[in-house]
Design goal:
Strand order of the largest sheet: 5-4-8-2-1-11-13
Bound molecules: zinc ion
Oligomer: single chain
Strand content: 15-25%
Shape: globular
Number of helices: 18
Number of strands: 21
Structural class: alpha+beta
Radius of gyration: 24 Å
């Protein structure tokens, strides 16, 4: 049997386990293969307007379907002829289906459109919300299904497109994308981009602001507002080394450059792995490089996630579990096993916490999810991240590290620039690792079962033993021991210290600890957030509520917001939570407000 490249590309989407319930696209009939994007950013009206042109591939299909949400479409052409399109369905999560009629030989379509105020991907920031407070700022966040709110597209992680873009911005501002970027401002305000490698649409990303570039290494650098540049270049000083270590582990970096942009604090995530240009929160700039495991994580996504991509959001663990595993291996190569063990132990605590929150029998604790009819954001829990990573550690412990590393290198090489479903991964694992070695293991229980399987590997850490001993001495005596061992503690040790305080502990203890270690004033966002959560749970928060409020207003990272607002709510003080949220909400991206609305306003 022979098939054309078109047929084989289209037919892969026919498999049942590749059906993406979060997209209206029907890629087995017609798909977009390349995007030419042309947009102008209007900061007065807060809209992006212009056109998206696609090269398309099909076998005589009579229509192609794209995902759209909250877009104002003015015209659609197919091979330069205006056509009658239709917009069907209107789902609060998925948005609508844009049906465009095709002829049997149609090759190109163009959609003329503008974004609206409801574009959930896009956050327009006033100058006051930026570090330098001089110019406005814009950034987009596409994952999971928000790209359709600023670009009409086949918004499924199983579909890949290359893209070129031309973005016009006001003078004094600079545009950067998940593509080839310039390092200097352009007098005419027009910036051109090229992303040659095919990527899923959720990885198309744009940021516009008063940006400057600082070089870190031959292939690495940082974009940031001018006042943050020097600090950021220092903070991410080990990026080039991380890149080399990552390549030593799992093969060549295939995206040419690896740069990071430091965004204003409203960015809802720690980082987003937009290819060639990771988008990062400024909350990881601690001044001492202590929170840069986040960069190792985003860099690892250049393999897991960006090269080999989850076919649907139900397979999200294939992106995140692999990435947490890989991140930990980079940190081990950089700082040694003791350091990496602390990270994986904190991860194990997060996993136990998440299973407790979701319920030990909840289907949401399966690695393979079923998010049909729900927001794919619901699947972004520590199950995908930490249960996924622990599953891979379990396999590593059975087959040995050398074998497992060889398996992963081949996995990335053989599946690069493709998407992967959970079923396909299971078959790949069996064929390439388990069967040749005559091994059986409880992969089904890990993937399709709830909770944490019994053979979940847990690291041990002498450093954490010392932390626990220091805390109990402290609690027994009510004072800091003479031989205070905390001088050289890393962020991980402090986090473990704070997390280990029992939530029924007397709030006097909090006062003594805070006087000694100034946790409330910590410039380290992870330590501050962990401390505030414990303090709220323990009833030591009325004294420091102004600091907690300042933190919640200035930071939009969902990972910090959810536990703090939730702790206030669980403490029976939803009024305080709502009052702070009312002041802070305008600083948050839609990804965060959706979660907080559900938590606080329902
Ligand atoms: Zn990730």
């Amino acid at each position: 049997m022979c098939s054309t490249p078109e047929e084989s590309l289209l037919s892969q989407y026919a498999a049942a386990d590749r059906k993406d319930t979060h997209s209206y696209a029907e890629p087995s009939k017609a798909i977009c293969t390349h995007l030419d994007l042309s947009l102008e950013a209007d900061f007065e009206k807060k809209i992006l307007h212009g056109s998206a042109s696609y090269d398309i591939m099909h076998e005589g299909a009579d229509e192609i379907i794209l995902d759209v949400k909250a877009l104002g479409i003015s015209k659609v052409t197919v091979d330069d002829n205006e056509v009658e399109y239709s917009i069907k369905s209107n789902d609060p999560i998925k948005g609508s289906a844009l049906h465009i009629p095709l002829q049997s030989n149609s090759k190109k379509l163009t959609i003329y459109y503008s974004t609206t105020k409801s574009a959930e991907a896009v956050q327009w920031l006033e100058a006051i919300q930026t570090a330098d407070k001089k110019h406005p700022f814009l950034f987009t966040q596409g994952q999971a299904i928000l790209t359709r709110t600023w670009i009409p597209c086949q918004d499924s992680p199983g579909i890949r497109i290359s893209y070129n873009a031309e973005i016009k911005v006001p003078p004094a501002l600079m545009a950067v994308m998940s593509a080839s970027n310039t390092t200097t401002k352009n007098a005419n305000g027009v910036y051109s981009f090229e992303m040659k490698q095919a990527i899923p649409p959720y990885l198309i990303a744009l940021a516009i602001g008063d940006l400057a570039f600082g070089k870190v290494g031959a292939r690495t650098g940082v974009y940031a507002e001018p006042s943050l540049l020097k600090k950021s270049v220092y903070e991410f000083g080990e990026m080039e080394k991380m890149l080399e270590l990552a390549e030593d582990l799992y093969g060549p970096y295939l995206w040419d450059r690896y740069d990071v942009i430091v965004l204003p604090p409203s960015f809802p995530f720690g980082g987003m792995e937009n290819p060639r240009l990771t988008f990062a929160t400024p909350t990881i700039i601690a001044g001492d490089r202590s929170l840069t495991s986040l960069i190792a994580h985003e860099l690892a996504h250049s393999w897991s996630g960006n090269l080999v991509t989850n076919a649907t959001w139900d397979d999200f663990w294939l992106n995140e579990g692999f990435t947490v595993y890989f991140e930990n291996r980079i940190m081990e190569a950089l700082y040694g096993k003791e350091y990496a063990d602390m990270l994986s132990l904190l991860g194990h605590q997060d996993l136990e916490h998440e299973v407790k929150d979701l319920g030990a029998h909840s289907h949401d604790t399966h690695l393979k999810l079923n998010l049909n009819g729900r927001n794919p954001d619901d699947g972004m829990t520590d199950i995908a991240y930490e249960k996924g990573a622990h599953f891979l550690r379990m396999i590593e412990s059975k087959v040995g590290r050398t074998e497992f590393d060889a398996f992963l290198s081949t996995y990335f090489e053989e599946n690069k620039f493709k998407s992967m479903s959970t079923t396909e991964f299971e078959a790949y694992l069996a064929k390439n690792l388990l069967e040749p070695k005559g091994l059986t293991m409880n992969t089904q229980e890990w993937i399709y079962g709830p909770g944490i399987p019994k053979n979940c590997p847990v690291s041990s850490s002498n450093k954490f033993d010392i932390v626990e001993k220091s805390l109990s001495t402290f609690i027994e005596n009510g004072t800091i021991p003479e031989d205070d061992l905390t001088d050289n503690w890393t962020t991980h040790e402090w986090l473990h210290f704070i997390r280990s305080i029992d939530k029924d502990e007397d709030s006097k203890l909090f006062h003594v600890l805070d006087t000694k270690y100034s946790f409330t004033q910590s410039g380290n966002s992870e330590i501050a957030a962990a401390w505030y959560e414990k303090a709220i749970q323990n009833g030591y928060y009325t004294q420091i509520i102004k600091d907690i409020e300042r933190f919640l207003i200035s930071v939009g990272r969902r990972k910090f917001l959810t536990p703090l607002y939730r702790a206030l709510k669980e403490k029976g003080d939803i009024n305080t939570a709502r009052n702070i949220y009312a002041k802070a909400k305008q600083n948050y991206h839609s990804v965060s407000t959706q979660t907080m609305d559900a938590l606080l306003l329902d």
